[in-house]
Amino acid sequence: MKFTKVFSDQLDHCYAIMRLTDQTHDYVIVASEEKQPCYAYDLNNDYKRTTVWPDVGGTMTLVQIPGTLNFLATQRFYPGFSSAACRIVKETFNGTDWDQTIVGDFPYVHRFDIIQHDGGLWFIGCSIANSKKNTDDWSDPGKVWVGDYDDNAETVNNLHALDFTLTKNHGYKNMNGYSLITGVQGVYRVDYPTTNEDWKLTRLVSEETSDIATADVNGDGKDEYFTIEGFHGPYTRIYDNQFNTLYKSEAVSPFGHAIWGGLIGSKNYFVFGYRDGKQDLEVISFDNNKINIQLVDKQVGPSNATVYEKDGTQYLLSANRESDEVAIYKISEA
After folding, report:
1. If both were cysteines, with which of 15, 101, 210, 261 could 228 make a disulfide (CB 3.0 to 4.6 Å apart)?
2. How far is CA 193 from each of CA 149, 155, 178, rounded to the nearest angstrom?
3. Strands (E), 61-141
4. Distance (Å) of CA 92 to CA 12, 18, 151
């Protein structure tokens, strides 16, 4: 595969990313984790940039509201992990840019999601801590918050914490039927409520895990799990679908952060990037129980990355945090 950078823009400490599209509009959204802007880049108009908000930032998560060009976002998750003032806002598309309303205060919530179901939208939010004396204080573990998101009222109702604590939660993945969350205690499956059962958590892995992605990288018809092991690395690991280890790296990727899994061309890959050391952005394949790493870009320090398709061509979007760069790479056959 060949990766060609086709777009670059400067955004200080760029962090959260999202593809935001409907039948007539198509954007990528990129927000900073500092008191810096959130930008929307128009994929239908030569990446024309619109400022969603100018200077609040502290954004860890962006979530599209189903069926709309509106989205929810965290703000004020700063400084570092001392984020007692974190809040969630709603951005409503007005045809040109976005109008903001405040959903509420959500202290220390690092990852969140809204889950569509027959009765509406569930809210799930994972806090990285419950309280902190300073950035390095992890003595009061985080919680998993759940409730009902009312989009008309722009509020979360019935918000409550599950009877569960998770230290240093960082990762979250929606698996289209359940969710995965990660932390010091490992990887957990979160099952949503049914008529017979409430929210349920099941531990799948006991290894300290920072983030997780899935893709069928060995072609056996079942997804493998790619994890950043330890809080922000420095290891990576590949599990089979039963969480048996297929591969574990040496401690070569400090501050592992960007992670994605899925189809590129006709084959599944993992995308991985780390923010310390070499600060590489990589694409990982796994054939015959052997790992192959292809360099996409070096010394860029990615925070988040994703692959999307536009007009029959695939692109890799990366928030290259350590180089303050929003980057889009065109993917083509080598």
Report:
1. 210
2. 14, 20, 10
3. 62-64, 71-75, 87-93, 98-105, 109-117, 120-127
4. 24, 15, 11
| 3-state SS class at 227 | strand
Contact 76, 56 (CB under 8 A): yes
Topology annotation, domain 20-283 = Methylamine Dehydrogenase; Chain H (2.130.10)
For the beta carbon of residue 167, count every other beta carbon within 10 angstroms.
Answer: 16
Q: Read off the tokens for 332.
A: 């083509």
Handedness of CA 91, 94, 98, 101 (dihedral sign): negative
Best CA proximity match to 34, nearest among 53, 58, 51, 10: 58
Helix intervals (H) in the chain:
none
Token pair for 331: 């993917």
Question: With contact defined as beta carbons under 8 Å apart, do 105 and 96 qualify?
Answer: no
pLDDT digits (tens, 9 = 90+) for 6-51: 999 999 999 999 999 999 999 999 999 999 999 999 999 999 999 9
